[in-house]
Amino acid sequence: MSLNISHHEYRFLVFFLINLVQLAHAYNVTGNILDRLVYPVTY
Asked: 23 with 15: CB under 8 angstroms?
């Protein structure tokens, strides 16, 4: 595995990480909503 990262790949990686963070926040919000819907049923 080479550490030769081109500028284009670097920009894509940063873009991907930002999207991943936003996705994680959205997943946490929906996860909290799902928890409130699921927990009363399972417990």
From this structure: no
